[in-house]
Amino acid sequence: MSSRPVRLLLVIDSLDIGGAERYVVDLAVALCGKGYEVTVACSVDGPLSGLLEEANIPVRPLLRRLVKRRTSMAFAWKLRRLLRAERFDLVHAHVYASSAAAAIATWGTGVPLVITEHTEAPWRTWRARLVSRWVYRRAEHVITVSSAIRRLLIEGYAVPPDRVTFVPNAVVAVPDSPSRFTSAIPAEWREGPVIGRVARLQPEKGIEIFLEAAARVAPLFPKANFLVIGDGPLREELAALAGRLGLEQRVHFLGFRSDARALIEVSDVLVVSSLSEGTPLVILEAMAAGVPIVATTVGGIPDQVRHEKEGLLVAPGDPVALGDAVLKLLPDPTYARRLGEAGRRRAASEFSHATLLQRIEAVYRTALGRPDPVRGPASEEAELRATR
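-> structure tokens emitted (388 positions)
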């Protein structure tokens, strides 16, 4: 992109376990491998920082407590000090609080700002919507992880279409290793079908819908086991619900697991019961592993999974429909395997991390005003148009 490496600051609320956080870590490592000088700033540290440290990517936690879903002038001020001290060429912010802080921090500095919007954020109050509208105007470019979010920004926030690029999520391929699966789950859980759900245990993930659907499936498959992989504020409440549904021996709350991908790959079905979403990385992980998916038609999920092609889609908030979709797959392993293999092919052809990286680099070049020196301005503009 120039004779010296681009100095890039990625900003995210935290490095806790989550889809947007994983996206940032994978992006940072991949960009570092391509010669960028990458630093990651966050309000607070988290478990994912270890992956960045292994790649020798500096992590800058700026505050003592998490900033989430709010505008923090302290976060913005610390970011501005970091910008002055380390002289970055470009800032790429993710998630509401970090985008707001980065928009304030870069104001008047001449440092271009790119934002990735990971969710439709239905929680936003009218004040938060006003802040978002200002932030989107401040950004040189906005990347969205779903076509639904892109439409929302254009129609609901008046962002010009030529400044919004839809770049589908992708996951980094993991080399096959039989040792990853040997201790993923106890052998007795594999005596029947394994149905997995991976998410933070918070309201918008619809975990209670998953449990109610499990109660519909369990009597017909007495040896089925249901894995809830992830942690969050609703864990005790959801465990109590599982008990009331008579599923205390069938539903296993596993908390955060570093081997979550191995758990997905030993599942017979992956369920995504969310009430709102961006484009879940867990779906792409399941597709890459050839695991059939039952999911709700929210956010960018229909961009990832086509009904009856790579999985089955149902309306959100409907445990009966969710359970019935699982029951359509479990008795018919041939059909389930066909959906899973179709997902594997689509993940490889349409959701590769290399493609995501190329599209994001095209946005960076435009934001920096640095056309590709090999292909020239016309080729650069054609590439950027192709991502919209």
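Residues 333-350 form the longest helix (18 residues).
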